[in-house]
Amino acid sequence: MKQVLFEIAGIPMYGFGAMLFVCFVAVTVWGSRRAKRTADMPPERFQDMVIWLFVAGILGARTLYMIQYAHHFPDHSPLGLVKAFFKIWEGGIIFYGSALGGVIGYALFYQFVLRKLHVSGWRLADAVAPLLALGLAVGRIGCYLNGCCWGQVACEECRPVPLGAAHFPLLPAHARQLLVREQLLQTTTGFTLAPRTHGLNDDPRAVVAKVEAGSAADKAGVKPGDRVTGVNDEPNYIVLDLSGDDDKVRAYAEALRDKGGQLATTPDGKPRVRFSEYDTYVSARRLVPEPADVTPFTRDNLELLVGEWPRGKSELTLTVDRGAERQTLPTFVPATIGLYPTQLYETVSMVLLILLLLAYYPYRRHDGQLMVLLMLGYAVHRFINESLRIEPNVGSGLTLSQWGSVVIGSAAVLIEIYLRLTMPSPPEPLTLVNAPDRT
Questions:
Q1: Angle value at C-alpha 201, between 200 and 206, nearest 5 degrees
Q2: How far is CA 398 from CA 74, 222, 405, 409, 412, in A?
Q3: All residues at 6 or more sequence positions from 273 whose CB lies less than 8 Å from its CB, including other chains
Q4: Which of 183, 151, 193 is nearest to 168 (CA)?
Q5: Residues 6+ apart with CB under 8 A from 65
Q6: What is the pTM for the complete model shown?
Q7: Neighbours of 410 (CB within 10 A)
Q8: What DSSP assignment string belongs to 312-377?
Q9: Quick one: how far is CA 170 from the chain centroid?
Q10: Between the CA of residue 254 and those of 267, 291, 304, what are the distances in Å?
Q11: What confidence score (pLDDT) does residue 437 get?
């Protein structure tokens, strides 16, 4: 997993976006040649079609994801949904949604462009079939880099795990919500924290309660009883979030600032005061009376940082007070427990399917059979691969994608029956217009 590959002038290049770009370029270059050779389609028209299908596929894939995982999008207002829709880099597209979107995009392209060119749709389908498998193979590498579309927990001690279990950096991982908060399979950082006390003289900065044996935190030397005083080369600020009457909150925050605090704001624009030292915090709280209509919520910077971890970052460096000694521990990377790398399984399956399609092409019985073979192959793969993923069931114990596999596989069988009835003889080789004389 490497969400950010590199930065150019401070602009991050995301792994997921990079793979989408590679996919687009590879499909366009290879497809332009295949479409000309297989279906006598002008390369420039094929390139136009790729843009139509690419945009329509992304729209369909993202839409289906937002429908299936509606609970991940709490803001259901039109503006909130639009904003969430374009955050594709956070993970969240489904192939069967892209297939549906691509079909709609192709229908529109056929209506407005392709019909006038007299290009055989079934021959074009044979040209496109390996390209779809290539797009899936490259796209799943993007999923692996992004840390999305992960598999179930893999017990490497129980049985061999093909390609080895994936241990993603936990703090930026999409799997963190599921593994830590929903299934309670691990902690976020490799250690738990003692309950925070909220007395005026109590230090609210995190204190380590227990450390998971063998975790990255354990190997870095985190010990029970450590009080975290620094996080990633910054103080572990004591943070006061204030709520209440706006004028009184503002006046209270400014008074705390005058006693050594630092003014900041919460993500929703409310006042926040930070203290880098405990003594300054205690002194300010004692010297500035707390207004009756103002409620302070005390936290620390470690809690805020872990709760809103920056994308592309994975390392954690802690400075701790251990007895009378303050020390900075070695940097460590909290990691997920082992997960099946289902993204890579799909990449391998699609590479093998590409080879099968290319090898079978000379032996096809009719135009369109390569597309049928692709649909069958992918449906079988996705149904099996889906059983290794953590997805909600939507009926009869099957996930949405498994039902999609059933639909795609059934459609492939029906298309094959139709094509055998309408194209009983093997297809003749395509004769290109103005082909060069090689005699």
A1: 95
A2: 25, 43, 10, 15, 20
A3: 239, 240, 242, 253, 256, 257, 261, 262, 263, 264
A4: 151
A5: 92, 93, 94, 97
A6: 0.79
A7: 12
A8: T---B-EEEEETTEEEEPPPB--BPPPB--HHHHHHHHHHHHHHHHHHHGGG-SSTTHHHHHHHHH
A9: 13
A10: 19, 13, 22
A11: 46
End-to-end, the C-alpha distance of the chain in Å comes to 54
The helix/strand/coil state of 235 is strand
Cβ–Cβ < 8 Å for 343, 91: no
Give the model confidence (pLDDT) of 215-251 as tens digits.
Answer: 999 999 999 999 999 999 899 999 988 888 888 888 8
Q: Within the chain, what is the greatest distance between any pair of CA atoms?
A: 99
Place of tokens 């090689």: 438
What CA–CA distances, in Å, run from 53 to 48, 210, 284? 9, 52, 61
How does pLDDT run across 284-333, given as a tens digit for each residue? 888 888 888 888 888 899 998 888 888 778 899 999 999 889 999 999 99
Token representation of residue 395:
């009926």
Strand partners, 389: 151
